[in-house]
Amino acid sequence: MIAVGVNGYGTIGKRVADAVAAQPDMRVVGVSKRSPNHDARAAIELGYGLYAADPDRTDAFEARGIPVAGPISELVEQSDVVVDTTPAGVGETYRDLYEECDTAVAYQGGEDATIAPHSFCARTNYSDSLDSNATRVVSCNTTGLARAVTPLLEAYGVRSVDATLIRRGGDPTQTDRGPINDILPDPVDVPSHHAPDLQALLPDLDVTTKGVTVPATLMHLHSVTVSLDTDPTAREVKELLSDENRIELITTASGCDSCAEIQEYVLDTGRRRGDVWENCVWADSIDVTDGRLSFFQAIHQQSDVVPENVDAIRALTGEMDAETSRTTTDEALGVGM
Ligand code: NAD
Description:
With 337 residues, the protein is an alpha/beta fold. The chain has 2 domains: 2-138 and 305-333, Rossmann fold (3-Layer(aba) Sandwich), CATH 3.40.50.720; 140-299, Dihydrodipicolinate Reductase, domain 2 (2-Layer Sandwich), CATH 3.30.360.10. The protein is 33% helix and 24% strand. The protein has 12 helices and 16 strands. Strands 4-3-2-1-5-6-8-7 form an 8-stranded parallel sheet, sandwiched between helices. Helix 1 crosses helix 11 and helix 11 crosses helix 12. The chain binds nicotinamide-adenine-dinucleotide.
């Protein structure tokens, strides 16, 4: 069993811990938190050992009746791999600890790409991170783009990608985020940081991305145009994408014409936390004219990187090939609607 620690038990960390616990070849050593809040209490109720990210604050946890298993250094020492899901930029401050303990680490997309030798998306470049001491799982938006572009590259060749990313203003619990009533070019400069992030996975890709932020918390919506080397039919592209387990084609017949309806559907069918691990590509939006493909896809920012983190753990240990890992992860989680 691969022993996994999760440092930073928030939006991504709590989902990664549950996904790791569901795998046949992994166990959760524990999770760490800085604040003794409701997430810390929930971690204990779910049976995870809770480690103090800041040992000086152990008393604050215990004063609220939240038992602490030990300091973060113990969690790191006892883990084969740590998934670092601390807030953007904080992972860097733990780099020395991971190295001192000789514990492999999967950082997240909020860290600079230089934090690890490679960035990671299981469908695109799993083998780059095989048997490595660190990798970086790219952001939710970049993961969504990489999953869609990789099969297109393999099947048809790609000349260029142009994507407009209509981004949620914040996650549902981020009550300090916005806008409340505006539509923001975000950033105003083109390309947004997602283009170089995608190139961290696919260095030769010609890609432009533009970011827009809107008052929503549900999902991101991508409007993607891909210039292909060949001229497949829309039907062939649909077949290609529907063969991808982490891409779901949403048909008009399903009645899911919005991100809200996708969320409602997964909640109704029992997905914990309303997670949507798959890229949701609207089948009727797929159009190919003279080798120029366009489509819309919805990306659930809180969960699409979760199966990627599970695969990143296996890649770092070097114990499984990419396809076996993806299949194992997806079966354990129930990926595929
Ligand atoms: P979050 O704020 O929801 O969770 C971070 C957790 O880390 C919190 O529980 C916080 O208490 C804890 N923490 C804070 N400082 C800490 C410290 N010094 N040591 C240990 N724990 C600490 O953040 P998140 O949204 O889960 O993001 C985590 C990472 O994942 C970031 O790099 C982010 O860019 C990336 N990411 C986020 C999303 C998203 O939409 N939320 C999507 C993909 C990737």
